[in-house]
């Protein structure tokens, strides 16, 4: 799974997740999310294009990241979730705490 953080400015960026987030690659996902979440007033857009599966660990990590980023005055949004991922977000209730209705993240510069 590839992770690419594209800055949109000093206080926002797009994290492009290149593949499913499973137990064998959760550590890289967690480190990248938590690193960004420590910044003040940061808006993180997670591009889930092509992601079909989030493990239960990934759901927990994403929920904690959303909590951390909000405590620091920012926000976390999920974009481009396919039908299978939308079901996972719904059943895990992650969609209740993270905006996941967008089809495309903001454009980079």
Q: Overview of this structure, please?
A:
By secondary structure, the chain is of the alpha/beta class. It has one domain (2-102): Transcription Regulator spoIIAA. The protein is built from three helices and five strands, in the order ββαβαβαβ. The protein has a five-stranded mixed beta sheet, covered by helices on one side. The chain is globular, with a radius of gyration of 12 Å. The chain starts with a strand and ends in a 7-residue tail after the last strand.
Widest sheet: strand order? 1-2-3-4-5
- The succession of helices and strands, N to C, reads EEHEHEHE
Q: How many strands, which pairing sense, and closed or not: the largest β-sheet?
A: 5 strands, mixed
Strand content bin: 25-35%
Intertermini distance? 24 Å
In CATH, the homologous superfamily goes by the name STAS domain
Classify the secondary structure makeup into a structural class: alpha/beta
**Oligomeric state of shown chains:** single chain
User: What's the architecture in CATH terms?
Assistant: 2-Layer Sandwich
Shape descriptor:
globular
Query: What's the level 1 CATH class?
Result: Alpha Beta
User: Average pLDDT value?
Assistant: 87
CATH topology: Transcription Regulator spoIIAA
Number of domains: 1
A few lines on this structure:
The chain has helices spanning 26-37, 56-71, 83-91; strands at 2-9, 12-18, 43-47, 75-79, 99-102. With 109 residues, it is of the alpha/beta class. β2, α1 and β3 (43-47) form a beta-alpha-beta unit.
């Amino acid at each position: 799974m590839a992770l690419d953080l594209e800055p949109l400015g000093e206080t926002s960026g797009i994290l492009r997740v290149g593949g499913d987030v499973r137990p064998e690659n959760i550590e890289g996902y967690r480190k990248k999310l938590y690193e960004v979440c420590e910044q003040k007033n940061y808006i993180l857009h997670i591009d889930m294009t092509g992601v079909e599966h989030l493990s239960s660990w990934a759901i927990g990590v994403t929920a904690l990241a959303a909590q951390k980023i909000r405590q620091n005055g920012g926000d976390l949004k999920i974009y481009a979730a396919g039908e299978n991922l939308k079901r996972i977000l719904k059943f895990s209730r992650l969609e209740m705490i993270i905006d996941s209705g967008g089809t495309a993240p903001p454009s980079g510069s």
